[in-house]
Amino acid sequence: MKLTVFGATGGIGQEVVRQALDAGHQVTAVVRDPSRLSVTGERLDVFRADLGDPAAVRPAVAGRDAVLSGLGARRRADAGVATRLTRTVLGAMEAEGVRRLLVVSAAPVGPRPRDAGLLDRGVLGVISAVLKDVYADLRAMEAEVARSTTDWTVVRPPRLQDKPLTGRYRTEIGGFPTKGRYVGRADVAHAMLAMTGDAATLKQGVGVAY
User: Fold this and answer.
1) What ranges do the domains of the chain cover?
2) Measured between alpha carbons, how far apart are the two ends of the chain, in Å?
3) Mean pLDDT across the stretch 71-81?
């Protein structure tokens, strides 16, 4: 497939690029600073853009089979960036008629796990309070995506870890795995690539966790 990755210098984004190349896909990585992208490959095109204008990134998505986005705030002070930048991606995709989109959100934005225990509810409450502005941004981003004309999937991981790819994780369409407290960035990337061709995940939020 021909894939475009936004947020390609982030922890999940770089894993998406790396794993997609390893799987034989043609990848366009959209970045602000190419020096921060450590992944290389013959099938990799690096597209430099600041995502301020949908028209400027249209060439990065034109003719692609799918767009995968790891865009989002890296710290609380960056709250608002996910909605703003994703709006640019949506504008470019809609202008080019590209349909398939997968974006990263977060577990607290979606429904609570079924049969969540007292500890899980307490931890979720604390995290949601501390990162309320970031999660408000992600909720707004999800709303923008849901209103779009794209065939979207929102991927909602819990606390992220830097761990090697395992391929052993749980997913739940429309919900979240019970007691799923952690997941590695590499496995989130793996899940996103697996969902790219999965019709069951269209216009759905999908929880992913160990």
Assistant:
1) 2-209
2) 28
3) 72
